[in-house]
Amino acid sequence: MLILILMVFTMFLMIFDIGAKILVENNITRGEEHDILDGNVKLRKVYNEGICFNLFDEHQKEVGILSSFVTVILTIYQLLVLMQKKHYLKKLGLSLMTAGAWSNTLDRVTRHYVVDYFSFKTKWKKLNDLTFNLADIFVITGSLLLMISSLFHKKK
């Protein structure tokens, strides 16, 4: 039953982020910004044509192929882990990572760029300029959960 719940959870998160990207695409123009949460978060539309920080943006096709390959491998690994007993934190982390990976990969394959749409207000200008999407947050959070789970997992 937990396998089904986590698979539905993964799909829900992916669809939620895709929906947010569609809203941003349809309602915000590039260069436009909106402050939310008392100015602590900015909504904006940014296109990332490469991997994180626009690295390899001149190689969109290769980035799309690599992203697709990694996402499929991650999904297979997630399914294998979901069939194991226990490892709940690892399962949750992989579900988050897989949701984020699929959402961004679908962007890369269909749009040839990833839509990023929010940034955080910090005291560091360079961090203020970074723009994320929920898929990025899912991947980061999932990775952290995976690392934490590895600290608690005892090898036999």
Briefly say what this structure is.
This protein is an alpha+beta fold. It has helices spanning 2-27, 60-82, 88-110, 125-129, 134-152, and strands at 33-36, 41-48, 114-120. The chain has one domain (2-152).
Overview of the structural elements:
By secondary structure, this protein is of the alpha+beta class. It has helices at 2-27, 60-82, 88-110, 125-129, 134-152, and strands spanning 33-36, 41-48, 114-120. A 3-stranded antiparallel sheet has the order 1-2-3. A hairpin with a 4-residue loop joins strand 1 and strand 2. Helix 3 (88-110) packs antiparallel against helix 5 (134-152). The radius of gyration is 17 Å and the shape is globular. The model has no long low-confidence stretch (mean pLDDT 91).
Properties at a glance:
156 residues, 5 helices, alpha+beta, 3 strands
Average pLDDT rating: 91
Enumerate the strands of the largest sheet in spatial order, edge to edge or round the barrel.
1-2-3
* Total of DSSP H or I helical runs spanning 4+ residues: 5
Helix content: 55-70%
Shape: globular
Alpha-carbon Rg, integer: 17 Å
Q: Helix- and strand-based class?
A: alpha+beta
Q: Which percent range describes the beta-strand content?
A: 5-15%
> Major sheet, described briefly?
3 strands, antiparallel
Low-confidence stretches: none
Instruction: Please report the distance between the alpha carbons of the first and last residues.
Output: 27 Å
